[in-house]
Amino acid sequence: MDKYLLALLGEAGASGLAKGIYSVRKEERFKRAYENEIQHWNYFRKYRRNILEKPVYYLLYLVGVITALLGYRAIKYVVNKAESGALDFYIKNFEVKGDIEKIVEDEKHHFIS
């Protein structure tokens, strides 16, 4: 499968997840994460578009809301799992320089300790 398509759908899902969490937990860090994920999604839209973007966004939005309602430990688990997967994907499939390097750095800041 095309790496740009996977990145596009991954960022659509990450945007939905972040928005869902931010909708429940009105914390600045979740707002910043959502804004970063939207920027990343828009970056990959330059290379590829797909009809699955919105369904993935809304599905992960619901997952984000449910996760946020389950509490901080659930948020930490889901976010860290998603971000580590995203980092692995970018490092394996893209040359980490330029815009991709900025995306990787943003993803590193989304981890919750």
UniProtKB/TrEMBL annotation:
SUPFAM superfamilies: Ferritin-like. InterPro entries: Ferritin-like_SF (IPR009078). Keywords: Membrane, Transmembrane, Transmembrane helix. The keyword Membrane applies. It comes from the Archaea. The chain crosses the membrane at residues 56-75. This is Uncharacterized protein. It comes from Stygiolobus caldivivus.
